[in-house]
Structure formats: C-alpha cells, structure tokens
Amino acid sequence: MKQLPRTPIAHLPTPIEELPCLTEALGGPHLLVKRDDQTGLAFGGNKTRKLEYLLAAAQEQGVQTLITAGAIQSNHCRQTVAAAARAGLDCILVLAGEPPKVPEANTFLDVLLGAELVWTNRAEMKIKLVSVFQEAKAAGRKPYLIPYGGSNATGAAAYAYAIGELVEQGVDVDWIVFASSSGGTQAGMVAGAALYDFQGDVLGISVDEPAEPLKERVADLAERTAELLGETLEFSAKEIMVNADYLGKGYAVMGAPEIEAIQMFARLEGLLVDPVYTGRAAAGLIDLIRNGFFTQDETVLFWHTGGSPALFADTYRGDLVKE
To answer: Active-site positions?
Structure first.
C-alpha cells in the first residue's frame, strides 16, 4: 500500500481506554474508546490526522494560504487554522452563520489562532468558498483549497492508516462506532478495514443527513481513497453501515439524548464529548445498547473524534448544567 507524503503534527498513536463505569451503567457490551480527541493540535480531533496529509500536499505546491469552510462551531476549521499556524501559512475560513458579537468556543479559537473569517449562510457556503479561493488566487496569495471536513481522498487516507494503527495496537474489537458527517472519516475507515483485513464492523452515526446519501458518498470516497493508496477496491452503498435514527431536530441542535450522553460520559468516565458530533454519536451508541443492538459478549470501540471546545458555546452551556 502506498504511503502518502505526511507532515507530522498529530500525537500518534492515540490511546485506547476502557470505559468500565459506562459499561456497567448500561449493562451492555464491553466498551472502549479511541482517543482521537487527543491528537494534540489546538484541542485535537479527527481532522488533525487528515491535515497531516492535506498539509503535506499543500506544502508540495508551495502554497501560502489554506482556505476551507465549515459551520460557526466547526472543529475542522479550528484545526485547519492551527495547522496553518504550525506551518507558517495564512488561513481563511468561510463560516456559515451570523458573526457573533464576541467570538466563543471554536470561533474564539479561530480568531486566536489567526484566521481571517468570511461569513456566509449554509446554503451559499460552497459558492462562497470558491469565490474566496479565486479572490485569494488573483491577489497572489497562493491558496490551497481544503474541502469541507477535509473529506477528499487525501484526507480520508488518514483514516485508512488509522485502521492500521488500531490493528497494530492489538486490541480486538467487534464494532467501531463514531460520528459521521462529511463522510471522510468513515470512507477512510471502510477502505482501511479492507486494506488491513480488519474483521470488525464500522458503524457511522449520522449527525446531519439521511442514511442513503451518506452511504453513497462514503462508498464512492472509499473507492477513491483506496485508488490513491495504490489499491483497486469496490464498495457499494449497501455495504456501508450508517445509522441515521439520531438526527433529532437537525444539525448542531442539541436535544435530550445528546444532553444525557454528554452528562453520562462526563460523570461516569470524566470524558468530554461535544454537542454536535461526538455527543450525538454517543447518544446513538447508548440507545443502541439499551435496545439490544450489540450482544453482551461483544466489544464496542467508540472512536472519539473530538470537538470539546463547542461545549463552551453559550448555545449549549446552560442546558448541560441544568438538573
């Protein structure tokens, strides 16, 4: 398998830890967590793995400016501007939402890390991203465009390699459960599972869209990721495991299931999950256990993809400390 150019910025391998109190409280399968919230770049998260390869690709082109897009509390954007700072590059972030009077949580970190912020709405984000890129190019800023979520074949390859890391750690698991959104992390895991002969199941909990379009996107990107790594693999949407039963009231809207999951992980394991991604995936995991989806003798690995700064946004903070 081909090894892509990499700029090492992540703290790897990330540890795998037991979740004994949560396992006991749920009376369910053996629970573990893989701590990609500890990848080390500005509060860490799964995008740091992707940015190692995306940044290397950018540096090979001699760029000066990284440009990407995301929601107002985007973990991807926060990690992208941190990677740019590490590499001595400028960074422009196209954020969907209303500019806050005082930046908070991830947006505060974006500003602290030196990002130039461009505001738009969610419907026009892709168009705005392209126009910002063209403007930077015309201004001679040598820009490099990183897609939403870092979810192209180069970014996804990081999670193919991450499955190899998991296999090397020698921990046998029956299931990997994690938050799936733009599809890059899941596509990489799906490709990696085939490339490294991982025998467990890879289950993405969708945080923002129905299962079928996400499955299609993941299958396509998994094929392109394998091709980039020098392998020919075929995946169909039917093979991709996505659960979209936990979308609640929509993207970034925290409801009772997320509140319960965040509090359970915090109070039983001292582990912080976020209101948008890992909290929703954790809520899905908890519900699946309660409904007998996993058998008692199985081992389930919750792959923690980060996001803790969003806990400090006023939007969520009050509801999380109510009793």
So the answer is: 74
